Amino acid sequence: MPLVYPPLRRCLAGGALIGAALRPAHDITAQSNPVRPDSVRQDSSASVADSLAARLARAEAAIALLQQQLATEASSNVRTRSRLQLELSGRVMTNAYHTSGRSSNAELPLFVREQAVAVGVQGSPGTRAFGVSLRQTLLGAAISVDSVLGGRFIGDIDVDLFAGGTAITADAFAFPELRLRTATARLQWANTSVMVGSDSPLIAELNPVTFAATGTPGFATSGNLWNWIPQARVERTIARAQLGRIPVELAVQGAAMAPVTGVRHAAESDAIDAGERSGRPSLEGRVRMLWGESDAADDARGEIGLGMHRGWLRATGDTLTSTRAVVLNGRIGLTHGMSVLAEGYTGRAVSALGGGGIGQTFGAPRAGEQFGPPVRDVAGWAQFNAQLHPAILGGVGCGSDVADARDRPRRLRNGTCEAHLLWRPTQPVLIGFEVRRLRTVYASGPQRATHFNLAVGFEW
Q: Using one digit for the tens of pLDDT, what is the confidence trace for 312-331?
């Protein structure tokens, strides 16, 4: 909610209301039928007393109404002592889930593990799990202020409770910990914007709609690149046009990112990432086209973008290994509350961007090797959403990631399909249900898992 002082018009309206209540009685009665002259002296004292009492009652009622309005305004806004505007947001979510199959995580499965081998006389641990968690609760804050270096400044931060358990209990469910998701500072001018902070990759900002997969966005390891990475960005609008009544905008974007890979050099003793050992940042560029008003409904606007990623890492010896990706994505509004989200890419060693290559940077090494070849993959996902009712949103989606078998990956293919229903019966309550089917292919054959998730919470 924007943090502003009570609107001036409310104070003026209250003043006018009190003024009307205190207006002399003859100003009001002059517009009604006039009294006869011979009755004026007879009723003058009574009428004056009655009019004063009525005006006082009206004034008291007007003051009470104005006080109530001001109290409501004060309770709904948080004020700052400067020209900053602060907006707080949040979603407290309780997720109950049931997962069948040996998934990577019962609470938020990304892929299916290989069949377990029984150890000793105890047998395998089983393939079903049920649990309840509040770890996907989200909290956010944003500030904005005009006239900063000739532009508008916007800063925001988002956190959740998905960090895991404490060092004492190691219980991620009983003691969830705060985790930073994104934090950005942005300056916007008429045609240019500059941002520094931690956010999704420039080339892959799109994520599917879900209440069941917010700790890690939906379709991760099944075609969605999402990881939050420190970076600096610049965007420049190069053309604007009007196609009938639809505004169209063309922009170019560029980013320099922290060289995060999650891999270490073979002889690394200082716990330094192999990307950092490359001595250079990762680079990204993108061209995008937007159409529709920014405040229009989803079915009246859209965006299509084409982006490229290039990074480096030093995993063995002095040799630099390059990472790369080409991504095409878009959000297209259809009609009657329907929209389509889609993203596809081809990449090489892009696991650090958010599960590319089914979470594999290198394939299996040969004898005497520390690392295998960089894993190449082709992946993508798509989701269709429809506003079935002003309070109900439904949709279906699928994602798939296929790793190149020549690079000897352990997981050859991973696919996820889901169906969801989101219901907001009344503010601030929300209810979501999602069913997800996963299939992961290994050299030994495919493995499957099914996940059901019921989310109940509130948001502001």
A: 999 887 889 999 999 999 99
> Rounded distance, CA 55 to CA 18, Å?
10
Q: Is the dihedral of CA 36, 37, 38, 44 positive or negative?
A: positive
Residue 370 has pLDDT above 70, yes or no: yes
Tokens 């998730």 belong to which residue? Answer: 453
Residue position matching structure tokens 């991620």: 172
* pTM (2 d.p.): 0.80
Structure confidence by residue, pLDDT tens digits, 186-236: 999 999 999 999 999 999 999 999 999 999 999 999 999 999 999 999 999
The DSSP secondary structure of 85-120, one letter per residue, reads: EEEEEEEEEEEEEEEES-BS-SSS--SBPPPPPP-T
Q: Do 325 and 350 form a contact (C-beta atoms < 8 A)?
A: yes
Q: Using the structure block, give the residue that is written with the tokens 């982006």.
A: 307
Band the pLDDT of 64: cuts 50, 70, 90: confident
User: For residue 394, which of 239, 172, 210, 161 has the smallest C-alpha distance?
Assistant: 210
Q: Which two tokens stand for residue 24?
A: 């002399």
Q: How far apart are the first and last CA of the chain?
A: 8
What does DSSP say about strands 128-133 and 138-148: parallel, antiparallel, or unpaired? unpaired
Strand pairing category for 321-333 and 302-313:
antiparallel
∠142-145-147 over CA atoms, to 5°?
155
3-state secondary structure of 215: coil
Cα–Cα distance, 68 to 49 (Å, whole number): 29
> Which has the closest alpha carbon to 379: 227, 226, 222?
222
Residues 81, 143 contacting (CB under 8 angstroms) = no
Closest to 3 in 3D by CA, of 82, 90, 91, 92: 82
Greatest alpha-carbon pair distance for the chain in Å reads: 122
**Is 397:219 a contact under the CB 8 Å cutoff?**
yes
User: Do 161 and 137 meet the contact criterion of CB atoms below 8 Å apart?
Assistant: yes
How many whole angstroms separate alpha carbon 260 and alpha carbon 8? 50
Count other Cβ atoms within 10 Å, centred on residue 96: 13
How far apart CA 398 and CA 409 sit, in angstroms, is: 22
In the 8-state DSSP scheme, what is residue 459? E
